[in-house]
Every structure is written in structure tokens, then in C-alpha cells.
Amino acid sequence: MRADKVVLRDIDWLWMPYLQRRALNLMTGDPGVGKSTIVCEIVARLTRGQALPGGVALPPMNCWMMNGEDANDDTTAWRLRNQGADMARVRLTDKRETMTPQMVARIGKEVRTHGIEFLSIDPLQAWMGKDIDMNRANETREWSSYLRDLAMIENVAVLICRHRRKALPGENRLYSGIGSIDITGLARSEISAMQHPKTKETWLQRIKGNVGKNPDGVQYLIEPHPDPKNPHGVLKWLGVYTPAPATVSRTPAKLKECIEWVKVRLAAGPVPVTDVVRDAAHEGFSFRTLERAKVGLVKSTQVTKGEWIWELLSSETPPGDPIPPPTV
Questions:
Q1: Does an H or E element contain 111, and which?
Q2: pLDDT score of 324
Q3: pLDDT confidence band for 322 (50 / 70 / 90)
Q4: In the chain, which segments carry CATH 3.40.50.300?
Q5: Which of 151, 196, 237, 265 is the 20 to 30 Å CA partner of 296?
């Protein structure tokens, strides 16, 4: 199509600047920080037609929550009621199933049949399938593309929730979520549920967006329900939260990205050097950058003649231990 034939349209926001319609959105956070409760609060407000913090009120809409960790009857439905959702406007699925083109087609049919405008998939790994290596872009691209196409075709906002690698916070939070950075690349918006390590304050913040600047965060608190028989909390918004300014770093941006990528790639254990080099090249990192990124971070071990593996240095490893050069 010629550019002059394109009919321009504005971005359709469910919650500006956090959730886009016709797009894939991400929410990343540590286990226990309240991601699922945040989703229930979003759904509650959307079904009631009530504005989310800093947003505008939209007509009440139908939502669908696919949760592969929490059961509908003893967790999700409780949280929705605690947040005041219009329960008749919410569809719930707690049965895990691998996301395939056939399943996405069924989801699309359900979306059309029930007029779904917001779909949450929680957590990422529950629906990806055991045969997919989440750290490899060539394996996750097709999976995430299914959902992106679903969002665009059905005019629905899709939100994928995923855990953060708790042991690897890193400097760049875009690389802290489980799975390939390719998933982040396909998302139009990524929001992060964060907790201050000292004050334990919790807040939600956009860390990646394709339009506009990332705003200050929105602080939230999950309080106990007043009914002692109700074991699930109630989320309340506390207002704008401004994180402390980041420390200025002299490390080049590409090297920092590569360092974070190495942490993610080796998080599950030792990996053959040839695999690391190949995957790094696929992600756009040169071998020279990879060599710089591993300094002080990676231990190289020769397992057979001409074969080396890389693994993350443990916290007990004294700094400055020699790292043999890999044979590639």
C-alpha cells in the first residue's frame, strides 16, 4: 500500500499511557507484588465504566481474564468482588492450554461472540507451552505474534503478565522480565509493578512505550479486607509516585543491554559458548560486545576439547578470578 493511501487514526487508549487497544501490552513484576490484583482492579474499573488513575472514563466493557496460576473460585472471583467489578461482564479461564494458532482462533471467536475489549493472560509461561524456550527470540516470536495479530484484528487490548527475574534485577528493567527481549519489542507498552527494597512502597510505572515519555509512577497499596473471613486484600491507589533519579552511568548503552541479556540467557544454568554467541548475534550483539559484557560476570569452563560453557559467577566467587577465553 502506498503511504498516501493510508487512513490515519489516533491511538486508542484504554488507560493512557499504560494500555493500548489493538496492541500487545506487558506487565512485569516480582511474585507477590500484586500483579494479579492490579489486573482485577483494572477489570473492575473497565466493567463499571470508571476511570483508572490519570485516565478517562469509558463506557462499561466486557473483559476476559485467563489466569494459569490462580483458581477462579478461591482467588480470582474473590479479588474481582473486592475491587467492585461488574461480575456479569467478566469471563474467567483458569485451565492452562498451550497458545497455538488454533487456540488463538478460538479466542478470537469468543472475543467476537462476547464483545470482549480487554483480555489479560497471566502469567506468560502458563500459556506458552513446555517445548518453547522463552529466552530465544526465534521461538517466542511466532507465539507473541499470534496475540499481537489477535489484538489488531479484534480491536482488543491484550495484557500479558510475567514475572521478573528476582535474582537479576539489573540496571535495565526492560531485560528483567522472563522471556526473550523480542516479546518486549512486540509490545506497544510495558508497565512494571515495583516495590521499593527499603520502604516497601509499591507502585506501577510504564517502562516502555512507543509514543510519548514514560510518566511518573502511580503508587498503590493492597490492604486487608475488613471482613476477616475474606482472605484477599483490596487495592487502593495512593497517587503519583516519583522514583528517585537513576545514577548516571558511563557504561555504553549497547554494552549495558548486552550485560542484562547475558544475565537473562545464563539465568537457568550453564550454556555452551557457541549457543550464547549465536543467540547474541540474533539479538544484535557483536562478539566484541559480548566479550566485554562477560567480564566479571561470567565463568568460562572447558568441558571437552574445543568445547566451553559459560555460567554466571556465583556471589561466593571472589572478584578477579581468571576467566579463560572461549573457543568459538
A1: helix 101-114
A2: 39
A3: very low
A4: 3-241
A5: 196
Rounded to an integer, what distance in angstroms lies between the CA atom of residue 227 and that of residue 233?
10
3 state SS of 37: helix
Looking up cell 561470567, which residue turns up? 298
- Contact assessment for residue 312 and residue 299, using Cβ atoms and an 8 Å cutoff: yes
Cell numbers found for residue 146: 499470534
| Residue 215 exposed, middle or buried by CB count within 10 Å (0-12, 13-18, 19+) | middle
Residue in 116, 179, 181, 176 with CA at minimum distance from that of residue 150: 116
pLDDT mean over 43-57:
96
Give the helix/strand (H/E) hosting 294: helix 287-294
Cell of 153: 484484528
Q: Which three cell numbers stand for residue 72?
A: 477462579
Largest Cα–Cα distance in the chain? 66
What class is the 3-241 domain?
Answer: alpha beta
